[in-house]
Amino acid sequence: MNSPIRTASRSDLANALTDARNYTLALFDCLAEAGLDVPARVPVLSIVNPPLWELGHIAWFAEWYILREAESSQPGTARGHSLLTKGDDWFDSNLVPHKGRWTQGLPPGGALKTYCREVLDRVLDKLGRSAENAAALYPYRLALAHEDMHGEALAYTLQTLGVATPPPPAWRAIQSWAQGSIRFPGGTFALGSEQQDFVFDNEQWAHPVRLDSYEMDSTLVTNAQYADFVDDSGYENPHYWTQAGRSWLMSQDQSAPRYWRRDNKNWRCARFGHDSVLLSNEPVRHVNLYEAQAYCMWAGRRLPTEAEWESAALSRHPALRWGDLWEWTCSRFLPYPGFEPGPYREYSAPWFDSHQVLRGASFATPSRMRSPKFRNYYLPERNDIFAGFRTCSMN
C-alpha cells in the first residue's frame, strides 16, 4: 500500500491491514524458529517484550478499538468481551506490567496466530460495511498504525536478540548518498499538523514557530565519520560528553557503538545474527542521544531541533535525504500548545519530558507511516533502535 495511513481509503486500509498482519506473523515465525515463541526462553529486558505477548497484544488492540468499539484505552470502555476468555487480562498494556508479560501462562503460538487471523477476518468484514469518512475509519487507521509500530519493534527484537534471519535486502545495508550541507533561510512556519482525516495526538496542533537561518547536513553521519570520532579517543574524552552521557557511558563500559567490534584495523558489526564488515559510507546506526551529542561536540556541530528538521523536510530540497534511519534531534518530547490525548490515551502523554524526539523514518518503517510531521520518541539511552543522526552548524 502506497497510500499514507492518514488519508487511506477503505479499500487501501483493507489491503494495508492484511499486509501488516502478514508481516507481523512472518516476524513472529522468525522468532519462533529461534525458540523465542516461549516467554521463558526470552531474556527479561526492558527494551523488548516476549514475542508471544507482542503477537497477542497487536491483535487484541485491533479487537479493542474496532470490533469492541472502545472509545478510549480506559479499561472497561469497550463493548462486550474479547474473543479470548482472558484477553483483557493478558494483553491490555494498562493492566499488565512489563515484567509480568513473561509469567502470564499465555496460550501457545498456534492458538494466538489463530486469534490473529480471526480478528483480522472480522475487522475486514466490518471495514467492508463501514462508511467512507474520517470518523468511521479512525479506529482502523489507529489499529494499523499501532501494528506497523509494533512491527518495527519486532524488527528491533530480532536485532537485539541476534536472531539469524534472511531479512529483506534493505535490512542488510543502506545505500550511501553524497555528503553535503544545505543552508535553510529560516522564517516562520507551522510546526505540527492541521486537522485532517487522521493525526497522532502529539502532532496537535499546528502552531507558528520562528526559525533563524541554519545550515544542516544533507545526509546522515556515516560510519567512516563516526569511526574518526571513535579513533580520536571520542569515548575516552569526557569533554565531549554531557553529564548524563558520561553517567551512561560509565555504566556501559563502552568504547564504540553497539554491535561494533575491532578486526585488526577494520571494524565489523553484528546485523540480525550475522557478522559483517562495517560499510564506511553507510549511515551510523544504533547510537543513542548521548553518542550523537558527543560526536557533535567533537565535530564542532550540533543536532537539529525538531522544528528545524521538520521545516527542512517540508522544503523538499532535492539534496535532502531522509528515511533511512530515525534521527535524533536536540528537542525533548513535549506537548504542543493545546494538546489533548487521543483515544489511545497512553500513546504520548506518559512520555512527555522524559523522552527525546526523533524524526524521519527507518528502513524498517512502512512507507504508509512516513511523514515529515511524525514525531517518534525514545529514552535518550536507547541504542537498540534503528537510529542515527545528522548535524547542524553552530551558527
Quickly list its features.
Four Helix Bundle (Hemerythrin (Met), subunit A), 395 residues, alpha+beta, paralog of FGE (formylglycine-generating enzyme), 2 domains, globular, three-stranded antiparallel sheet, 12% strand
Task: Outline the structure in words.
- Helix content is 35%, strand content 12%.
- The chain is globular.
- The two termini are 41 Å apart.
- The mean pLDDT is 95.
- The protein has a 4-stranded mixed β-sheet. Strands 5-6-7 form a 3-stranded antiparallel β-sheet, with no helix packed on it.
- By secondary structure, the chain is α+β, with helices and mostly antiparallel strands.
- β6 and β7 form a beta hairpin.
- α1 runs parallel beside α5, α2 runs parallel beside α4 and α8 crosses α9.
- It has 2 domains: 161 residues, Four Helix Bundle (Hemerythrin (Met), subunit A) (Up-down Bundle); 217 residues, paralog of FGE (formylglycine-generating enzyme), CATH 3.90.1580.10.
Summary, kept brief:
With 395 residues, the chain is an alpha+beta fold.
